Structure formats: structure tokens, C-alpha cells
Amino acid sequence: MTTVTISLPESLKEFIEVEVQTKGYGNVSEYVRGLLRAEQAKEADARLEALLLGGLAEDIALTPDFWRELKADAAKILVKQKVPRTTRMAK
What we know:
Blueprint: H1 10-22, H2 28-57, H3 64-80
């Protein structure tokens, strides 16, 4: 694991120490890693939302064939990811 050193004003250092103590983190590093992971997740969600909105902007005919193909594609993905049958979409 790589070490990163940062400089903080005393007020932020005190804030982090309180967060570590009150929110169940083992140490400052765990707290900072948690913040960074949350930010990564936000960025991934924003990218996914942009892709979904871009897809909605396309003019796609929602025919019965479209839905059959979509369901078949989803089933292949679930099998590939080894999702248990009980948690898959209903037929």
C-alpha cells in the first residue's frame, strides 16, 4: 500500500479525529479511504447516469422483439455473473 502525506489545518485534523472516534473507523487512514471510495462510487454513478440518459435520447422502437432480446441479453449477463436463479428476473 502506498503512503500519502497531506497537510491540514488544525480544525480539519480535529474534525477527522472526531469522525474517526464517533463513526467507528479504526484510524484516520480508514476514514480517508472510506471518503475516497464514496467519491469513486459517486463518479461511477454519474457516468452510468450519463450513459443511461444518452441511451434514453436514442429513438428505439419498443417492440415485443426488443423486449425479448433485452430479456435474453439480461439472462446471459446473469448467467455469466453467476447470479443465483432465485434472485434473477421473473420470466
